[in-house]
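User: I'm writing a tutorial on reading structure tokens. Could you give me a worked example: one chain, its sequence, then its tokens, then a sentence or two explaining what the tokens reveal?
Assistant: Sure. Here is the example chain.
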Amino acid sequence: MKPAARLGALCLALCCLGGARGLWRSDSHEWHKLIMVHHWPATVCKEVKNHCKDPPDYWTIHGLWPDKSEGCNRSWHFNPEEIKDLLPDMKIYWPDLLHPSPNRSLHLWKHEWEKHGTCAAQLEALNSQKKYFGRSLDLSKELALNSTLQKLGITPSTYYQISDIKDALVSVYGVVPKVQCLPKQGGEEVQLLAQIEVCFSKDLQLQNCMDPAEPAPRGPEARPAASLGLEVCKDGVLFYPALNKTNP
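And here are its predicted structure tokens:
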């Protein structure tokens, strides 16, 4: 190949590489922290009514979400074969509450990988489906939210001040979580505890979900699409509902 041709080929290759990095690192795919999200089945099932089937009576994983980024690689499809070793734990800790079918959890896991996992995969520690789901399970077990709440004396069928729940969680985790509620509706007197988010840095260290100077989210930011009509709990009283075993 002539020198001029070699130079042209090299320039083309560098341009293509730079373009690929630009696509991966575009503003729409940049994120700064990971959000470990657990939700409370009793409240989720109340929101979606008859769509729940045999919900567990413990907090379950909703997802591990990079903030401000989703759907980073639409060609990287979910493959359940890659996480078959994790399935026993996945079915216990990360069930799909909303799709009552024999393989119902596959729907949730597919959604979580393709929307959130493909963005989290920018980290080497999360750059495969097995790593993403496996590390999510590990983080959930390390947080031990169910036993933590029990040890703090925070139990279902009880009214609480939202500030008391936040302060209790800060006393254990050392960082400020985000607590979401189902707003009070027709026959409800108060908001219902629904979801607890604990945040991690890119090196998977606990961090505040909100910076001290950051204002509380309002409007659309307070009610993300994935939250099923939930919103950041308002200051004041909330109710932590027990699971109604008579519901379908």
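What the tokens reveal: The radius of gyration is 21 Å. The CA atoms of residues 51 and 98 lie 5 Å apart.
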